[in-house]
Please model this.
Amino acid sequence: MASRTRIRKAQPVKPLAKPRKGALVRWLAALAVLVSAVIALVLWVHSGLGTRGSAVAKASDPGFVLRPDAEVFATYTGSGSCRDCHRQEYDSWRQSHHGLAERAVDSKLDGPAFVPGRTFDHGSQKSSVFADGTGFHISSKDLTGQASPQAVVRVIGVDPLRQFLVTAPDGRLQTMEASYDPHRNQWFDVYGNEDRQPGEWGHWTGRGMTWNVMCAACHNTRVRKNYDESSASYHTAMAEMTVSCEACHGPMKAHAQWQQHRYASPGGKDPNLNPPSRDQVFDTCGSCHSRRGELTGDFAPGDSFFDHYILNVVNGSEVYYPDGQVHEEDYELAAFLGSKMHAAGLRCVDCHDPHSGKTLLPGDSVCMRCHTGADPAYRKAPVIDPAAHTFHKPQSSGSRCVNCHMPQTTYMQRHSRHDHGFTTPDPLLTKQLGIPNACNRCHADKDVQWSLDASEKWYGSKLDRPSRHRAQAIGAARRGDVASRPALLALLGDSNQPPYWKASAAELLAQWAADPAVRSALLQLVSSDHPIVREAATRALAPAAPHDQAVAAVLQARLADPSRNVRVMAADALRESVDPTSPAGRELLRFLDTESDQPAGQLHQAMYAMSRQDVRGAAEHLQRAIALDPRSAALRREIAVAYGTLNFPGEALTQIQQACQLDPDNAEYQYLLGLSYAEVGRIGPAAGALERAVQLDPRHARAWYNLGLMRRNLGQSDPALQALRQAEAVDPSDADFPYARATILAQLGRTGEARAAAQHAVQLRPDFGAALQLLSALPTNP
Model:
């Protein structure tokens, strides 16, 4: 086997130039959203949870402490001990996707993939597979740029595709891009023709394909990642390979031992059995079937989902569509949380056998069990007459419930998954917001207008439902349209909206948290009954905590919240002052440690160090973040903001220049590039970058505003006023814009216009001291 180049560890910290004194041009405004951006970067894969109101499944212990591996694993007994007493369940599980989630190489199962050997193309590359006397091998381009054979040590999954693990330095296992389709007896690249290259995050050599953090926890039982930041190495351990019986039932050694004792001395009831509630089962399913960030790295069945994870919901990103449908690889949980089915009380086990994973009934029967009105447990479900409801021929593809309400998206080139949002196809949302609809998924030869005409003919005004208006408001908020605020605020007060959607609205309203009505609504949400809402409101308010005593006081109370996700987010918001030895402080440090093997985690640690006045520590973490993923434009952007906040303008400029090179058509990056140039006194390039930003995004109000300031500094008064008017047109609620215009008009001697602009600024912000001072200085009779 050819030797492989080691993946670079974090490099020694380079000495930084002395921080430049003076305020940064709008860097603090950019930093105001950095916390949310970092949390968003943390939410990658597998990111379930029951609606409990104010209660949680099991109260968490404040101040999380990770018990030693040996102590935890000693409570597990292994799936083999379940077989004799639970034969039917064991046999059903053993050949399921859970039972084969991760496994050793099997010559019978995997031999056909490697024998005979073969070569296949993907993008500009070729990979080959073969078997020899030592085992199975995959040869793909490595970090040297040359193909090298890698010995397969484990297999993930069995159907509809299989992925293969190989060893790497520092205790890592890497997941190969080369994957096998057993149905077609075909090899393919799991990323299709993206043609990822060595050194990229998602290439098989990159950290985006490191099993220890990206795959292990959800393909095995009670995994401990055990990352050592000082050596950038892993010592990953687990109770049992694959998703075993105890992955869902929890450690059962005491139960097995008690059963053995019962056989010798019959009688009594096993004190070790504590049957979980429906919501606890749901949380256990959600711990893997969700896109989420890790808080502790140590979830166990029976725990609350929110004590261990931060769920990724519909927000300003493209991770989900505005109506809640999955877009990226999001898994099932979040979409289901926003659905009417979840709100009606359904949980995973109402439709799926927990051991085989299959649906309890075939086809539409599993849906019609509730929607015929025959099942007394679900008499509240609307009765559906399929013939009248679908407008499709009976038994046709278009008549199937799941094809309209659970559309399928194919991930990893082969894995078709049903959306669990139970959404209603709405071609109008496709036309307005680009949201897919089930009609055009099937009728790909027809346009959206064809589908819209048919749906309006069949259903008429029934499609003009609250879910449509909610999606429209979310779509507008994503564009930064201030007109969406009233609808989102109304959503927060709507008792018919599930907590999931209130959390979504809170995240979207964060961009306008300075608005008094939004601030007031978010402060009320912090006391919501549901932890997902309290967490979202806490994060939305976090940027205000350092300078707003009322917000800080409210978040201080959340340090004792009954749910860990809220406590950690509150501690993060108050990281400048939180006691690191307090329960919430220790939980925050555990969160930071859990994500320390990721670039976003290193960025988060840098932010924490900054808040504790540890400039050198912050610089170390920033450079480690860059070393972990040097090709990420988003990461470079966040690091630029962090360097700017540290008053290292040169380093900030370098990082945002790199981001713009990696993603030249991103308006936000061009905007920050303009701020960076301004901070180092290069006004001409600053104006050029800001002009590029508004070309890319004409609705970027702050870019127009700063362009106006730069043009003023260049002596271009009329173009400056024009840019400021554009800023006001995009966001008429921001008092800074008319105030800046007033100052230019005053300098030009246009006193009447200046007074009108200053008065408008004061109307928008009555306590605007600078505008009030300008008004008092202007002559009353120009």
